[in-house]
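User: hey, got a sec? need Serine hydroxymethyltransferase folded
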Amino acid sequence: MALRRLSVLVQKPNLLNGGSIGNRCMSSLSSEAVLESRVNWTKQLNASLEEVDPDVADIIELEKARQWKGLELIPSENFTSVSVMQAVGSVMTNKYSEGYPGARYYGGNEYIDMVESLCQKRALEAFHLDPAKWGVNVQSLSGSPANFQVYTALLKPHERIMALDLPHGGHLSHGYQTDTKKISAVSIFFETMPYRLDESTGYIDYDQLEKSAALFRPKLIVAGASAYARLYDYARIRKVCDKQKAVLLADMAHISGLVAAGVIPSPFEYADVVTTTTHKSLRGPRGAMIFFRKGLKEIDKKGKEVFYDFEDKINQAVFPGLQGGPHNHTITGLAVSLKQATTPEYKAYQEQVLRNCSSFAKALVKNGYDLVSGGTDNHLVLVNLKNKGIDGSRVEKVLESVHIAANKNTVPGDVSAMIPGGIRMGTPALTSRGFLEDDFVKVAEFFDAAVKLALKIKAETTGTKLKDFVTSMQSESRFQSEIAKLRLEVEEYAKQFPTIGFEKETMKLMRSTL
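Assistant: Yep! Here you go:
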């Protein structure tokens, strides 16, 4: 509607200056002929990818085939929609727009302002937020930068952060460090201390978190994870933050789609600031958002109104603090995905994500697998493989060889992130393709077959290093035969389901076989 209203107000400029002279030129020559008589590069700029760069086009076709024939189980991945990809691949990529709507450092941004403002409005609507109480920055380029922008906005250098330990399900961007090395740059610029799971239950140990916070006195506590299959108790962490006068940052990168659909509890009731990526369960383009409280915070003891001061600090930290021009094509695609997030179809999808993950978890347990925390409340499962006598790295290699994408992951008690004891898997991507509960029972069977094959290869491999395992897997004909058999079963199952973002009939691979 906005474009239709604008179309009657905006006049189309002549191709050439000079009014009637330009019109006379256009009457005798086509626009293409005029341009070709002046320059020789415009034809290439408007040619297709397949014509201009067949090498890249072929790689994209191979990736399409992988997505069609494989099982995507990495919980941080999803298949975004055609409409989002059309927006991301649009002319909105061409514009520079440092600054914010209505206050740019470049001209010609009237439509960029329009789409960014629309994206902000839709972000608040998607998460059911009052615009008088919450604001949002949609310019952050990805999740890790978004978290760092919040830290630099609200903390002084070397002030203190507490977050879930990486081997217990946390994320690098929350300040991970070892005894000998600061792995994340966050731990260089700020002092960080982890809280952890109760290893006997697999749940966050909130009692110990509270005790540690009383000693460490953090200025900010992060409630968020990348490999935690249970729900956060935001109310409990809010109480800890209140005692320490700390900011509560909820990082809902993994679960934001579930939160938007209202199928799991929202952090917004308790958090001061909320960050999220936009491409995981939310199913948008690759980007991030930072939500922050605004307006009246409290009435102090003297009866004076105290207001939140997050908005200016966070906006300044994003630009000009840590970024230049935003990625307007991404913001445009995000606006589209946020509109989708308010539809009945989206809620039904997120409900199915949870049902599928529950079915998947039960099937894995039935097959003898140990899940960290014993199950799941969200979109992912974390399998502890130690009782099977194998590690996540070797299982990941076999899974990849049979076209199942999952990722090795640390579990409590691990000492190496490169050879961890777990595998992390999730249901958002395959649910987007139409998988239901029974399909995930079948996926669990494929996983079990891959683990058994990995155990067989390990037992018959000379040498104890991962590279020895991979060499044996790739060179021994008896293993290659079993891998090929399982891969064919996986592919035949996966190919039954719709592709997302492209029609399989348009694939070059399919066209060449017709």
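Quick note: The chain has a mean pLDDT of 93. Let me know if you need anything else on Serine hydroxymethyltransferase.
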